[in-house]
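Q: What would this chain look like folded?
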Amino acid sequence: MAANTPRRSHTRDYVIATVLTLLMIGGMLLILHNITDAVNHPLTTLKPRGEEARKIDDLSRLVFGIAGLVFVFVEGGTLFLVYRFRRRHDDVDGEDEPVQVHGRSVLEWTWTAIPALTLAILAAFNVSTLWDLESDAEQAKMSVEVIGQQWWWEFRYDTNNDGKPDIITANQLVIPTKTMVAVKIASNDVIHSFWIPALNGKKDAVPGRVHRIALHADEPGVFEGQCTEYCGLSHGYMRMQVKALSASDYDAWVENQLSGPVEPKDGTLAAEGKTVFDQKCASCHQINGYTPAGEQTDSHEPNPDYGGAEHPLISGNAPNLTHLMSRDHFAGGMFPLYDSYDEAAPKTSAMPDGVANQGELGDWLRDPPNKKPMAADRARGMPNLNLSEDEIGKLVAYLTTLK
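A: My prediction, written as structure tokens:
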């Protein structure tokens, strides 16, 4: 029995090694399945939906392909050597020892040169891809300013090329399909990072600097994104979307954004909500064409009166709400603005329409810091304005008219 113990020991080791290998392969396949599921896990880089993302994906596949070959070669060679030169129960020290290769210059130079050459090839492809991505951003005919805030994203469009933004929106960047769009990324406070994995890689938003990437979408769709640089309490809730529209739908969206806000009819609950907005909200949030006191103007540009001595900004900066209901989410992309969409106006149309999520809007107005971690006492995020239920109802009625 004693003579057979080593053989049983080797057999047991092979079984354990085989089981562990199968478990590792199964775990890797499960992870790969999850990260390629663009429906349930939209923040995946493995489902490119645009030209820029495809360039990154092509590079990633090349790098992982070569890395996979290296892994197979190294691990295969290691397993072969372990098996071929394993110690057997009848081995005698000093007899039939494997030949040592230490000091053989040809072998040592070879296994030094091969990794160096492999890394040089990969570096060349990496640099080439980076140059292509940067060149696309420089040559794009359309550009949008992106500004990171704590904790939401602001988007500014200069549609008439006069150097001033005439469309200011938040949380959802709208672009036309089959068009290269240069995104100029900055920050209003701390370092953020802009990332829409289906359309391009990550780019930091740094105070005092402007970083640029290009976005290109093949087909209409809504693509999810996330801030990927820790920026404070609600970093994990600082989301964004890119909505890609057909050329005609995009033109319709621009026309709507350039139009003035909806003026509620006198005597309606929405009209009363506008009065409450002027009294309670206008010191932070802007409605184009109106002063903080509710007076109508002809301008659709940012109002210079906002943040003045008469109406000091509470949060430092707040989303423009002129066409709030033309977006799909609010509060940094956390909460949906619609419970459901009309079939005639799906999420990929120029102006979404459907059943407004009045309950979520009301809960937000009731106690914003309870819905999203913020530091309103330090000018970061929306404070609790202690609104009455009557005021909340009127505000929700008004806000849901802003399409």
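The chain has eight helices and 14 strands.
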